[in-house]
Design goal:
single chain, 295 residues, Arc Repressor Mutant, subunit A, D-Maltodextrin-Binding Protein, domain 2, 3 domains, ten-stranded mixed sheet, DNA-binding, transcription, transcription regulation, WH_DNA-bd_sf, LysR family transcriptional regulator
């Protein structure tokens, strides 16, 4: 019905079957067949074909406004469907994700007709954003042994020049030492119990002062402390490269960020877990569940 009405409207506006079919983007025989089928369906002729120029019959003139309305409605439906397909899925992501990494994830998602809109946030806020329906899904912080993606963590700074792990007990100052005690700065992305509390237990076990392991106000603030002193930043190896730091694992225990996906009720996030799994891992600078490092 829509195709026939489109041919009918085009031919009536142009005044010929040849020109009308070209305007509708279909071959002339197809336009003729569609209009003839529409006439049979409606029970009356739409055009007077006896004249040199194609003219509407009175019946055709009466039906033309409604046919135009149907064609406009069909066009509007197609546009609505296109907009619906292109409607971005709002995804909360760690503030540590770079603009380049997010752009690459978005580009990969578009090959699956998924358009992403990102909201950077700290761990607790990402959970809240899903609960308040401000986003449809979020990459949330979980313990590494429960994670779909994990990011190994270590400490980095400008002063550690040796190879191998850093022993946190080496930060313990002697009684005669007058220089400021070195600190380890935890960035907000790692201010979660399964990372922070484990590091604090090691701090206490090796005899560091409470202030020697502290949470920075922001990633840039923690990095600035490490840049301007002998302090260390808890971070991924990828972040260490970004800041020009030398990165080392922590000798006393393995540390890692863990990530999973949580989504609003009714939204299926399986595409992020399956077809886009490696792309999400690259965005996070992570090791996915297969144990293979990405990035």
């Amino acid at each position: 019905m829509v195709g026939a009405c489109r041919a009918f409207v085009s031919v009536s506006e142009v005044g010929s079957f040849t020109g009308g079919s070209a305007a509708a983007g279909i071959p002339q025989p197809v336009a003729s067949r569609r209009i003839a089928a529409l006439e049979r369906h409606l029970g009356e002729r739409l055009f007077d074909r006896s004249a040199r120029r194609v003219l509407l019959t009175p019946f055709g003139r009466d039906l033309l406004p409604r046919a135009r309305q149907l064609v406009r409605s069909a066009d509007a439906l197609e546009q609505d469907a296109k907009r619906a397909r292109l409607r971005p899925v709002r995804l909360a992501v760690p503030a540590t994700c770079t603009t380049r990494a997010l752009a690459e994830l978005d580009a990969a998602a578009r090959t699956h007709e998924l358009f992403l809109e990102f909201r950077r946030a700290d761990p607790a806020e990402r959970v809240d954003l899903v609960r308040t329906l401000d986003v449809r899904a979020a990459l949330v912080a979980v313990p590494a042994d429960e994670a779909e993606w994990s990011v190994p963590l270590g400490v980095a700074g400008t002063t550690e020049r040796h190879h191998g792990p850093v022993h946190l007990d080496s930060l313990r100052a002697g009684r005669a030492e007058r220089s400021p005690r070195r600190r380890v700065w935890i960035q907000p992305e790692d201010d979660v119990p399964h990372v922070r509390d484990r590091l604090l237990r090691v701090r206490d076990a090796v005899g560091l002062r409470p202030a020697q392991v502290a949470v920075a106000e922001s990633l840039s603030a923690g990095a600035a402390e490490a840049l301007g002193s002998a302090d260390l930043l808890l971070c991924s190896a990828e972040q260490a490269v970004e800041f020009g730091f030398l990165w080392h694992p922590v000798a006393e225990l393995p540390l890692a960020r863990g990530y999973g996906i949580t989504a609003e009720a009714g939204y299926d996030a399986d595409l992020l877990r399956t077809a886009l799994r490696a792309d999400v891992a690259c965005c996070l600078g992570a090791v996915d569940g297969t144990g293979l490092e990405n990035g």
